[in-house]
Amino acid sequence: MPDPAWHGVLVTIAEVVPSLLSGLDVPGADNTLGLPAARRVVLLLVDGLGHELLRAHAAHAPFLAGLVPRDIDAGFPSSTATSLASIGTGLLSGEHGIVGYTFAIGDEVLNSLSWSRAGDHRHDLRKALVPEVVQPHPTVFERAAAAGVAVSAVAPMAHRGSGLTRAVLRGSWFRGAAGFGDLALGAAAAVRQDRSFCYAYHPDLDTIGHLYGPGSPEWVLQLEFVDELAARIAARLPSGTLFVVTADHGMITAGDRVDFDTEPQLWQGVRVIAGEPRVRYLHTSTGEVLDVWRELLGPRADVLSREEAVAEGWFGPVGPLATDRIGDVVVAMKDSAVVLRSQAEPSWNAMKGFHGSRTRDELAIPLLVHMT
């Protein structure tokens, strides 16, 4: 059973890329993580590879487990789009404003992964909600490129030109990957020249975890493939390349399931509900929502007002960009509970693995360093 809550460590995912760029002499990039300096750097982000999951299944990942482990904090919410934005901007969610899987901007609820209307992937919002406006902060990749570093991103082909790519990865030269082979070769090719940085992203471990549950036989076999991928990337890198592996979040297996769509008590006073099953943002029309949700969910969740969550430091420093997107009430599920929407979000109903909340199993991610 995951810890009820985890308050994280002193360093976060937002510090990873600035620390790596420090060794590439990028102005303003501070090496707060104390990482080795190198003129060529590859950062592999494995979606869903939580620190606790890797530790529990180390026998199935001999290459990764053989690297000196260090756990850092993914930041809240522990969700893919949020963490990728932190990787790309060097900021936490309260500053970059990508506060989760879905969140409200004005009258729209944005699915930040597909950059579409929540619940309707066919409704592209890249024109209505311009990615460079939704996340206006300069990226660390733009800063590196301006300093003369050759910056590349190797990720699934479908990510080319996507809203999230434009919002958080701009400044990098994008190379689409169809599978393990071209991801590995693309990452190696991206750092052939002096002063080069490559960000590589692999999504499938997270997908398998959602479908079958983290630690399932399917997940463990996928971890073995990921370990082999990392080993093969390392073997192909030029001598003197710094190879770093991290993740965006961990994952838990769902237990208690609360269905918002069939629980009328939870509807009262809620104008908009956003987020995902492990963390919900409630935009309210009455002040009673906080008490109703606290009473109904009880020990299964931390239910805080926006002001309380901000004061607790859940989002890091919070600027005006993120304030309204957080909602009036923040619901962070504890242990293994989830809040589903069986009718409005049917794709979650059959899933077993989830993330987004504040347990150590979700927030703790590995930082693994290898010098070729």
UniProtKB/TrEMBL annotation:
This is Type I phosphodiesterase / nucleotide pyrophosphatase. Transmembrane segments: none annotated. GO terms for molecular function: hydrolase activity. InterPro entries: Alkaline_phosphatase_core_sf (IPR017850), Phosphodiest/P_Trfase (IPR002591). It holds the Pfam family Phosphodiest. It comes from Lentzea fradiae. It comes from the Bacteria.
